[in-house]
Design brief:
Layout: H1 15-27, H2 32-41, E1 47-53, E2 56-62, E3 66-71, H3 77-84, E4 88-91, E5 94-97, H4 98-105, H5 108-118, E6 124-130, H6 132-146, E7 153-157, H7 165-175, E8 179-184, E9 203-207, E10 213-214, H8 218-233, H9 238-241, H10 247-251, H11 254-269, H12 276-282
Parallel strand pairs: 3-6, 6-7, 7-8, 8-9
Antiparallel strand pairs: 1-2, 2-3, 4-5, 9-10
């Protein structure tokens, strides 16, 4: 049985952890019972709990060193209706997205109790999710920290905005740059709901149209990437280009985030890594 490769004591950005948390985010889209069996049998996790209430799904998984909470992203009409409820509502002197907050409320009592009871002094706590799941992961992290629980890392992928400027400022102070928000090229979901009412938070990690990862000079690299993508799609043979440059809606697909993370990890470490997760997903 292969071990779950992870750096539980990481205190800042960690590419391996980003990849592993993206993989767990992908697993949240699988039937929850099947995901639990895979995590226990193939990756050696000793604890697994799922949460499923009115189209809000998540799971908690743990071993001797880590506890991870992964939220599922949008996969139904009800989820899209949740996304559309963009009214900002006050919560503890800040304002957050009404629909996202309501969706988290459905599983929060059970989830909060599970994290508190599952986490021991030697375990670090990590939260992740894609799309709507990323929004719920951020809101959950905010609630955990308000309750005095230390969250060691938050990694989200294709996440929409979730709160107002006060929420963003307070969140960044509490998390102290332990929150990382991945954006793939022209992913449109990361641009909604719009400012000025809403503000992004966390450190942005940007993949350009070639899959290169940037953590600084974000605006310049975003502008260059979008310009190149537009130019490529207007050239002859644009249909063939669409596979590698899917543009807005296509860039949101979690598989593109995973592809870029795997390639970046292989470039930086010269390692092929474990194929266990990829084999499992590809067989589904």
């Amino acid at each position: 049985m292969p071990a779950f490769e992870f750096h539980p004591a990481a205190t800042g950005f960690d590419l391996l952890n980003a990849l592993r948390l993206a993989e767990l985010s992908k697993l949240s889209y699988q039937p929850l019972e099947q995901a639990g069996a895979f995590l226990k049998q193939e990756l050696g996790f000793t604890q697994y709990r799922s949460f499923d209430q009115d189209d809000t799904q998540a799971f908690l998984v743990a071993n001797d060193t880590v506890v991870v909470v992964a939220f599922r992203g949008t996969s139904s009409t009800q989820d899209w209706l949740t996304d559309a409820r963009i009214k900002l509502v006050p919560v503890n002197n800040k304002k957050v997205h009404f629909g996202f907050n309501q969706a988290l409320d459905r599983v929060w009592p059970e989830l909060s109790d599970a994290v508190s009871s599952s986490r021991g002094p030697e375990q670090t706590l990590w939260v992740t999710g894609h799309s709507l799941g990323g929004a719920l992961a951020m809101l959950a992290t905010d609630r955990f920290t308000d309750q005095g629980l230390w969250v060691d890392g938050l990694y989200t992928f294709g996440q929409p905005r979730v709160g107002d400027q006060h929420f963003a400022q307070e969140f960044d102070v509490k998390m102290q740059w332990r929150a990382f928000r991945f954006v793939n090229d022209e992913d449109l979901v990361t641009r909604v709901p719009p400012p000025p009412g809403y503000r992004h938070t966390g450190a942005m990690c940007f993949f350009d149209n070639k899959g290169g990862l940037y953590r600084d000079n974000i605006f310049w690299n975003w502008w260059r990437s979008v310009s190149e993508g537009v130019a490529l799609r207007t050239q002859a043979g644009a249909a063939a280009t669409a596979l590698s440059n899917p543009n807005g809606p296509g860039d949101h697909n979690l598989d593109h985030y995973l592809r870029n993370l795997r390639e970046q990890y292989r470039r930086e470490t010269k390692s092929t890594g474990s194929n266990t997760f990829e084999d499992y997903i590809n067989n589904k």
